[in-house]
C-alpha cells in the first residue's frame, strides 16, 4: 500500500467512525428548539441521545458476526442504508416518541461504521502499527466535534432542527459512494463461521475469555464514557444554566474538541518511548486528579462558564490517549475473530456511554454536578479497573510460563 493509498484508506475509515460522532454532536445545539417544537422538556430530548447510544451498543454486537461471516462491505452497505432512511425519518417526525424510535434505528444502522472501521484496521495494517493508525483515526474523528455542533447550531437557526438530519443523510450517501469505489475489501467472507445463536455466543465467549481483551476493552469502555456525560449535560449547562446561544454553544463545543485533537498525534511520539499500558495508566491518574478538582470546584461554586470550560479542556486532553492505546491492546490478540472483538469492544464503550448519559438525565437538578460527577466517576472507575485487570493478566501470564515447561516434560 503506497503512502497515498494509506492516507485515503485512513480518511475513509475515519469518516466511517465519524458517522456516530456527527449523529451525536450535530443536533446538540438544537435541544432547546427540539423540546419547544415537540412540546416536551429538554431532559426528554436527552433520552433520544440515550436511545442512540443503546442502539449503538446492541447493534455492534449484531454486526460483529456478520462482518466476520460475510466480509466487511456487505454489512456496511446494509447498515448505512438503514441509517440514511432513519435520518430522513428523524427529520419528518412530529413527536418526541417517534424521534426516540428513529434515533434508535439510526444508531442500529450507523454503528456498522464503528465496527467495520476497527476490523478493517486489524485487516489492513500490521499489529505494530495499529495503535498509530487508531491515533490517526482519532484525529479524523476529533475534527467532527469542532464542526458538527457549529454546523448544527447555524442550521438550526437558519433552517430549523429538522435540517440537521437531512444533512446527515446526505453525508452518509457520499460515504457509501466512497466505500464502493475506493475502500479495500479487507478480510474475505468466512462461510465456516456460523450465525446460529449458539455459535455466535460461543465466538463472543472465546473473545471475552482473553484477559487482555476483557481488561482493556472494559477500561476503554468505562474511561472513554466520560465525554458522553459532557455531551448529554452540556446543552443544558451552557444554554439553560449559563444562558448562552446555540451558536455560542457550538463554538464552545468546537473549542473543547481541540482538547481531543491536540494530544492525538502526541501518541505517535509517546509510543516511541513508552508502552501503551504506561500511557493509559499515567493518563487515567492525571484525569482522575483533574476530575476530582473539577467536581469539588463545581460543588463549591468556584467556576463560571469560562472557568468550567477551562477545566473541561484540561480533563478532555486525556481522551485521545486512553482510547487508541486501549483499543490496540484489546484487538491485538485476534485475527479470525477481529470483527467480533471490535464489535464487543464498541458495544462495551457505547453501552457504558448510554448508561452515563441516562444517569445525567436522571440526576438532572439544574446544576452542572450530574455532568461533572459522572465524568469523574468514569475515569476513577477506569483506573481501578485497569489496576485490577493488569494484576489478572500478570497472574495468567506467570501461570502459563510455569505450566509450559511442565507440559514439555510430560510430552
UniProtKB/TrEMBL annotation:
Keyword set, alphabetical order: Cell membrane, Membrane, Transmembrane, Transmembrane helix, Transport
Main localisation: membrane
Family designation: Belongs to the major facilitator superfamily. Bcr/CmlA family.
Keyword Cell membrane attached: yes
Database matches in Pfam families: MFS_1
Membrane topology: Multi-pass membrane protein
Transmembrane segments: 7-29, 49-67, 74-94, 100-121, 133-155, 161-183, 213-233, 248-267, 279-300, 306-329, 341-363, 369-389
Domain Major facilitator superfamily (MFS) profile: 9-393
Record-linked PROSITE patterns: MFS
Organism: Larkinella bovis
Protein's cellular compartments: Cell membrane
Protein name: Multidrug effflux MFS transporter
Alphabetical list of InterPro entries matching this protein: Efflux_drug-R_Bcr/CmlA (IPR004812), MFS (IPR011701), MFS_dom (IPR020846), MFS_trans_sf (IPR036259)
Amino acid at each position: 500500500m503506497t503512502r497515498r493509498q494509506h492516507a485515503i484508506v485512513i480518511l475513509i475509515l475515519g469518516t466511517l467512525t465519524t458517522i456516530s460522532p456527527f449523529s451525536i454532536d450535530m443536533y446538540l445545539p438544537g435541544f432547546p428548539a427540539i423540546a419547544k417544537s415537540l412540546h416536551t422538556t429538554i431532559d426528554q430530548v436527552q433520552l433520544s441521545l440515550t436511545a442512540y447510544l443503546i442502539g449503538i451498543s446492541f447493534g455492534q454486537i449484531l454486526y460483529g458476526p456478520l462482518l466476520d461471516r460475510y466480509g466487511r462491505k456487505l454489512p456496511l452497505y446494509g447498515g448505512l442504508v438503514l441509517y440514511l432512511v432513519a435520518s430522513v425519518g428523524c427529520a419528518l417526525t412530529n413527536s418526541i416518541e417517534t424521534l426516540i424510535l428513529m434515533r434508535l434505528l439510526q444508531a442500529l444502522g450507523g454503528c456498522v461504521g464503528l465496527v467495520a472501521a476497527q476490523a478493517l484496521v486489524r485487516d489492513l495494517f500490521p499489529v505494530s502499527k495499529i495503535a498509530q493508525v487508531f491515533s490517526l483515526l482519532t484525529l479524523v474523528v476529533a475534527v467532527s466535534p469542532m464542526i458538527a455542533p457549529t454546523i448544527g447550531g447555524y442550521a438550526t437557526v437558519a433552517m430549523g432542527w429538522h435540517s440537521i438530519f437531512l444533512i446527515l443523510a446526505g453525508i452518509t450517501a457520499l460515504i457509501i459512494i466512497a466505500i464502493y469505489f475506493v475502500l479495500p475489501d479487507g478480510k474475505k467472507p468466512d462461510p465456516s463461521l456460523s450465525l446460529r445463536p449458539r455459535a455466535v455466543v460461543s465466538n463472543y465467549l472465546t473473545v471475552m475469555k482473553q484477559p487482555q481483551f476483557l481488561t482493556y476493552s472494559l477500561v476503554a469502555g468505562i474511561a472513554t464514557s466520560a465525554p458522553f456525560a459532557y455531551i448529554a449535560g452540556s446543552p443544558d449547562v451552557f444554554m439553560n444554566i449559563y444562558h448562552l446561544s446555540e451558536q455560542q454553544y457550538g463554538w464552545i463545543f468546537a473549542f473543547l474538541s481541540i482538547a481531543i485533537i491536540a494530544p492525538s498525534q502526541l501518541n505517535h511520539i509517546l509510543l516511541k518511548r513508552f508502552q501503551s499500558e504506561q500511557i493509559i495508566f499515567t493518563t487515567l491518574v492525571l484525569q482522575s486528579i483533574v476530575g476530582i478538582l473539577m467536581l469539588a470546584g463545581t460543588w463549591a461554586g468556584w467556576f463560571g462558564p469560562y472557568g468550567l470550560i477551562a477545566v473541561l479542556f484540561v480533563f478532555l486532553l486525556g481522551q485521545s490517549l486512553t482510547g487508541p492505546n486501549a483499543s490496540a491492546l484489546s484487538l491485538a490478540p485476534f485475527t479470525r475473530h477481529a470483527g467480533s472483538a471490535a464489535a464487543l469492544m464498541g458495544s462495551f464503550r457505547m453501552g457504558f456511554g448510554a448508561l452515563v448519559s441516562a444517569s445525567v438525565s436522571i440526576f438532572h437538578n439544574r446544576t452542572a454536578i450530574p455532568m461533572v460527577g459522572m465524568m469523574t466517576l468514569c475515569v476513577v472507575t477506569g483506573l481501578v479497573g485497569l489496576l485490577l485487570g493488569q494484576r489478572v493478566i500478570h497472574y495468567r501470564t506467570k501461570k502459563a510460563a510455569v505450566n509450559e515447561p511442565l507440559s514439555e516434560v510430560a510430552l
